[in-house]
Amino acid sequence: MKPIRKFTVRAVVPPQLSALEELAANLRWSWHEPTRRLFEHIDPTGWQRSDRDPVAFLGDVDPARLEQLAGDAGYVEWAERQREDLRSYLSEPRWFQSLGAETPRTIAYFSPEFGIADSLPQYSGGLGILAGDHLKAASDLGVPLVAVGLFYKAGYFSQSISPDGWQQERYPALDPDGLPLAVLRRPDGAPVQVTLALPDDRSLHARVWTASVGRIPLLLLDTDIPANTDELRQVTDRLYGGGGEHRLQQELLLGIGGVRALRAWSELTGRHAPDVFHMNEGHAGFLGLERIAAYIGEGLSFTEALQLVRAGTVFTTHTPVPAGIDRFDRGLVKSYLTSALLPGLDPADALALGVEPGADPATSAFNMAIMGLRLAQHANGVSKLHGEVSRRMFGALWPGFDAEEVPITSITNGVHAPTWTDAALLGLAEQRLGTADAEHAAWLSEAVSDAELFSVKRGMRLQLVEDARRRLVAAWAEQHAGASAPDWVHRVLDPDVLTVGFARRVPTYKRLTLMLQDPERLKAILTNPDRPVQFVIAGKSHPADDEGKRLIQQLVQFTQQPELRERIVFLPDYDMGMAERLYPGCDVWLNNPLRPLEACGTSGMKAAMNGALNLSILDGWWAEFAADDHGWVIPTADAAADSAERDRLEAAALYDLLEHRIAPSFYERDADEVPAEWMVRMRRTLATLSPELGADRMVREYVERLYRPAAEQSARVGASGAKPARELAAWSNRVREAWPAVHVAHVESGGVDAAPHVGDALHLRAHVALGSLRPEDVSVEVVYGRSPDDDVIEAPRRVTLEPEAGAATSDAATRVYAGTVTLDRAGAFGYTVRVVPRHPLLLSTAELGLVALAG
Ligand SMILES: *Cc1c(COP(=O)(O)O)cnc(C)c1O
């Protein structure tokens, strides 16, 4: 029977065990094994049944068992110790406190998705998991961050596969009362409500849930409340669900509503208002408009407000794939940006921020990533290669500058080791290396024998095999109206066979089916009698992406062949719960995107943390970390004539590696039945690679390279009632207006004769027309370097030319700038002279996108 209404009744926990409730209320349990063990002890079977979610578990556990434990002094004391441990974790000084830095005071981190725990499914893939890991690492490091997102009633979706291989989506509703969430309330108990004015005099209201992710508060806005019309209650129904307008409403809520929620939060908690705003992708870009409108309300102009907002804003771009970037119909955006929503903000100014460079401003789509870059003085990609790709991709925003000068840096993603390292491996480290820190050089020592490490890895593989069987048996029953699964389903996979994993979302560029290029060859690899290989595959396709669903179908149908089905499986409903067992259970992690479309990719990092070796195209993070010790590179067939040939060549390389390098190495056993060469690689991966891949390294980089500079810049520009911001705005306007008249009239050179030598000095004098600008408004630079052909200066270097005193010219607005370049290298040499704006509050030469080049 179907209930008409559902809610969760929370258990009554005996007062002696109140520690359990406190521990369940903070999501730190999701990465803290000792806390999990405390819960598991209550009822190991029930614990597994609740998917290791303490909140669901406490709601389900037999009250008699709790009463019994309340009388068990040993257990009560254990629980108290864990509570003390949590309390000191939450309050003691950590890395950030040791810096003694006054800023940033508070960093507001906005993301459309957060993957923190399996039981809080508010993510679709890598972007969300990364956001979750960012919060956890920020918590461990004591970084004063507050996170903002949306609460989606049905999360993303849950996937099942029909017998003919087609993806089916279900949207089971979550009950927030059964989750570790609390409503943000005013002291009188009334819930905080955030309101956005919509067109046609409608209003969108949201309540604010708060979750505690260790030390980090996470605010999630939720429109499913009676104050809204039925239609508007659906705004936060699911992640990336609807089309244009629905998505736009979600993003307006995230950005504008998010800033409003933060104001209430900071008032209620007494915490500092944020001095840094970090947008994890463009989806939260409207936060900049809300902040600009607030400054306009304080009397600033749009341009002045923009300076203030930019100074403290960090934008992270996550994808070079156009479909991954939100672009809205311009007219639609315009209809929402009313003065009721954003008082004082001229919609034309706001709309201009989203115009793609070079596009017709009247008709261009409204691009959220472009707006993000215009709103943020600090921007980054998520791996070194992705940084380069982004500088080229967005270079048109800074016309006249080479890609190297485009102000987008990179910080390579990381993953949260305590979340993603298997408990068995942590246990082994604790026992043998004397540390629970699995990322430890001691993995190279003899403290752990090869045999022992290999046997722990086998346990991890077995755990995956059992999990896969359980999932497939359940999926079979679901697909076949409750019929029980045939015997072979209980027998799929083998804990002693070399295991290759592949799991991720299924956009085309990730090439789920590359492995099927030559089905006969793959079949031979899987069924090799001496050196068999097995594949475990998972992934969700976006519900609107039929192309992705066809790829899944093709793969599922391949796995259904009777002679293969025990060696290659597709596990439905990829999520964090599956991921937790999948990465540790694999020996090899496969990634074969179309280079360079994988911005970073984090699943391979998680696999490496569990001693898996990577087999990957040289893309994303792997382009930085690939080494013989850590796995194998699938060569990229850049020279291929077309994409079909490229796929064919890259797949052939993949088969070759599996057949001739990987399988032989795995099955080459020494006297103890251990693959000695394999173990060397596994140890090096654990000892030297995994420490580099941690989210703590990533968050420290964010603090030092982006958050701190953003906080400082924000303080600088906002000082004395934002006087510097006003000056900077006035100066930028003046420079922009005057710029068309700025040019290099001519350049005189001397000092080198017809046959210059290394060590010679090249003297330059540039006559520069400044129009209405003052000499100190600009820098005049020689840009020079190797010039193998007419169009380029490679790895250019720069020297600033100085204004020549008293060098009057016929034209008062023309000044002479002079300087010297030493020719320090032999070979083809080229130089040019350019004029760029100069102001102490600019962070990069390219910032205004203005340059006047000689010639
Ligand atoms: C890590 C992870 C991802 C992201 O994997 P990529 O390799 O970056 O595509 C997606 N989903 C889940 C459940 C994950 O744990």
From TrEMBL:
<dbReference type="InterPro" id="IPR035090">
    <property type="entry name" value="Pyridoxal_P_attach_site"/>
</dbReference>
<dbReference type="InterPro" id="IPR011834">
    <property type="entry name" value="Agluc_phsphrylas"/>
</dbReference>
<keyword id="KW-0663">Pyridoxal phosphate</keyword>
<keyword id="KW-0021">Allosteric enzyme</keyword>
<protein>
    <recommendedName>
        <fullName>glycogen phosphorylase</fullName>
        <ecNumber>2.4.1.1</ecNumber>
    </recommendedName>
</protein>
<dbReference type="InterPro" id="IPR000811">
    <property type="entry name" value="Glyco_trans_35"/>
</dbReference>
<keyword id="KW-0119">Carbohydrate metabolism</keyword>
<feature type="modified residue" description="N6-(pyridoxal phosphate)lysine">
    <location>
        <position position="606"/>
    </location>
</feature>
<keyword id="KW-0808">Transferase</keyword>
<dbReference type="InterPro" id="IPR024517">
    <property type="entry name" value="Glycogen_phosphorylase_DUF3417"/>
</dbReference>
<dbReference type="GO" id="GO:0030170">
    <property type="term" value="F:pyridoxal phosphate binding"/>
</dbReference>
<dbReference type="GO" id="GO:0005975">
    <property type="term" value="P:carbohydrate metabolic process"/>
</dbReference>
<dbReference type="Pfam" id="PF00343">
    <property type="entry name" value="Phosphorylase"/>
</dbReference>
<dbReference type="Pfam" id="PF11897">
    <property type="entry name" value="DUF3417"/>
</dbReference>
<comment type="function">
    <text>Phosphorylase is an important allosteric enzyme in carbohydrate metabolism. Enzymes from different sources differ in their regulatory mechanisms and in their natural substrates. However, all known phosphorylases share catalytic and structural properties.</text>
</comment>
<comment type="similarity">
    <text>Belongs to the glycogen phosphorylase family.</text>
</comment>
<dbReference type="GO" id="GO:0008184">
    <property type="term" value="F:glycogen phosphorylase activity"/>
</dbReference>
<dbReference type="InterPro" id="IPR052182">
    <property type="entry name" value="Glycogen/Maltodextrin_Phosph"/>
</dbReference>
<keyword id="KW-0328">Glycosyltransferase</keyword>
<feature type="domain" description="DUF3417">
    <location>
        <begin position="13"/>
        <end position="120"/>
    </location>
</feature>
